[in-house]
Design brief:
Blueprint lengths: L1 E2 L3 H12 L5 E4 L5 H5 L2 H18 L14 H11 L6 H9 L3 E11 L2 E6 L4 E5 L4 E3 L3 E3 L15 H6 L6 E5 L3 H11 L4 E5 L11 H13 L3 E3 L4 E6 L4 E5 L4 E4 L1 E4 L3 E3 L33 E3 L10 H19 L6 H4 L3 H7 L3 E3 L4 E6 L2 H6 L4 E7 L3 H6 L6 E7 L4 E9 L6 H9 L4 H4 L12 H9 L2
Parallel strand pairs: 1-2, 1-6, 2-3, 6-16, 8-9, 8-14, 9-10
Antiparallel strand pairs: 3-4, 4-5, 7-15, 11-12, 12-13, 17-18, 18-21, 19-20, 20-21
Helix pairs in contact: 1-9, 3-4, 3-7
Family: Belongs to the class-I pyridine nucleotide-disulfide oxidoreductase family.
Keywords: FAD, Flavoprotein
Cofactor: FAD
């Protein structure tokens, strides 16, 4: 039994079914989940039109051909095509083709291997899993404790990615990944955007230069940033919503987007029935098995575990869990070596992530402070991305990159790339970290001229190879 049919739940269900198990999948909304319909896919579709126009304007010859702004109607129509016009029939068909039974409704745990499902008609079903129950219910937006916020209508990320028109103005509370991506997406579609951030720069958990470069790009797009700001109250008139900041400044806009993070969706899962707290993330071991529940039958994957809130990491954990469940069901001995040798380290120190702003931010692994806390002898190498390949891609190309190196073993611990089209550099860095490839061997992995990837050679040379 799998509760939740987002990317994590789909992967558990499909892989377990292909391993010969009978699988039931429970979903109360759309099959495909948050990523497919309200997050990753529609947000990147909204960003792409503005990015394409901006990229053309950075190339002499192409710039002269750009005579207008991105078309809002065309952009929204393209976004709608990527979410199948908000219809999940295609993904439901896949579930059926995979031999998985789909239950439409809300599911919760009612005891050992027991699941209750209340379907769309209000009928409650009692189901029992012979082998395992997997929690894959994802996460939900967190709401900050700001006076007046409960009394106004505001956008969450779902509303911001599914809007049917470009608002005249938009205030964004929060400058993390969701905040900066959607701020830039709507700004490039003609919306007047203001971003209120609690820290000195956007993307506060990432490298300082990442936030600085993204902040500069947002300002160039006409976005007004309010750094180091504390919101004292929120109010609304029929025409606009207003944030009152602690310095007395009022920030007003037609809509307010609250983008202050997400929390594990464990409410109403019935976890108290198996001795767990109802609120907060579910802690799991290296096999995805929920800690504190005996019997080896309850597992969890994805955002609900409180680990990296990234679709690709959730799908990775889902594959591990499915393999473990199938192995146990077929009598094979489950060992860390066979099933999840690298799962703990992959979730701790080799998580790749991309912020799809322009410039992109692509990072994987440790930052210098985390690497030192983990006991590594750290050396950092940082350079501007200014190779011929980068300059051919865009006139005045601006970018920066950083390597974090374990000096004892001369292996890569972390990497950050900021610039146009740098996301495609990230997989090589992830392979180098997971594979613990010595830098002296990486030196012989010759980057193609002229590409942005030449930064690999420049960083290795700056290290001294």
């Amino acid at each position: 039994m799998v509760l939740g049919a987002g990317p994590a739940g789909e992967n558990v269900a499909g892989r377990a079914a292909s391993g010969g198990l009978s699988v039931a999948l429970v979903e109360r909304e759309r099959v495909g989940g948050e990523c497919s319909f309200w997050a990753c896919v529609p947000s990147k579709a909204l960003l792409r039109s503005g990015h394409a126009v901006a990229a053309a304007r950075r190339v002499a010859g192409a710039a002269q051909a750009v005579t207008g702004e991105p078309d809002v109607t065309g952009t929204l129509r393209r976004r709608d095509s990527f979410v199948d016009e908000w219809d999940d029939r295609r993904q439901v068909d896949w579930v059926h083709e995979a031999g998985v039974a789909l239950f439409r409704g809300s599911g919760w745990v009612a005891g050992s291997r027991e699941v209750m499902v209340r379907d769309v008609h209000g009928t409650t079903l009692s189901l029992r899993a012979a082998r395992a129950v997997v929690l894959a219910t994802g996460s939900v937006p967190s709401q900050p404790d700001v006076p007046g916020l409960d009394e106004v209508d505001f956008w969450d990320s779902r509303a911001a990615t599914s809007a049917e028109r470009a608002p005249g103005s938009l205030a964004v509370l929060g400058a993390g990944v969701v905040g900066v991506e959607l701020a830039q997406a709507w700004a490039r579609l003609g919306t007047e955007v203001r971003v209120v951030e609690s820290g000195p720069r956007p993307l506060p958990t990432m490298a300082d230069f990442a936030g600085e470069l993204v902040g500069a790009a947002l300002r160039a797009d006409g976005v007004r940033l309010y750094p180091d700001s504390v919101v004292e109250s929120v109010s609304r008139t029929p025409e606009e919503v207003t944030l009152r900041l602690s310095d007395g400044t009022d920030v007003s806009a037609e809509h307010l987007l609250v983008a202050t993070g997400r929390r594990a969706a464990t409410g109403h899962l019935g976890l108290e029935s198996v001795g767990l707290h109802e609120d907060g993330a579910v802690e799991v071991n290296e096999h995805g098995e929920v800690r504190g529940v005996s019997g080896g039958w309850l597992y969890a994957v994805g955002d609900v575990t409180g680990q990296a809130q990234l679709t690709h990491q959730a799908k990775y954990a889902a594959r591990v869990v499915a393999d473990v469940v199938v192995a146990r069901a077929t009598g094979r001995h489950v060992t860390t070596e066979a099933f999840s040798r690298y799962m703990t380290s992959a979730n701790r120190c080799a998580v790749p992530a991309v912020v799809f702003t322009d410039p992109e931010v692509a990072q994987v692994g440790y930052d210098p402070a985390r690497a030192e806390r983990a006991g590594h002898q750290v050396r950092t190498v940082e350079l501007d991305i200014d190779s011929v390949g980068a300059l051919l891609r865009a006139d005045g190309y601006r970018g920066r990159a950083r390597f974090v190196v374990d000096e004892r073993n001369e292996v890569l611990l972390g990497a950050v790339f900021v610039g146009q089209d740098v996301a495609e550099l990230l997989q090589a860095a992830t392979i180098a970290i997971v594979g613990e490839v010595p830098l002296r061997r990486l030196w012989h992995a010759v980057p193609v001229f002229p590409t942005v990837g030449e930064i690999w050679l420049r960083l290795l040379e700056a290290y001294g190879l």
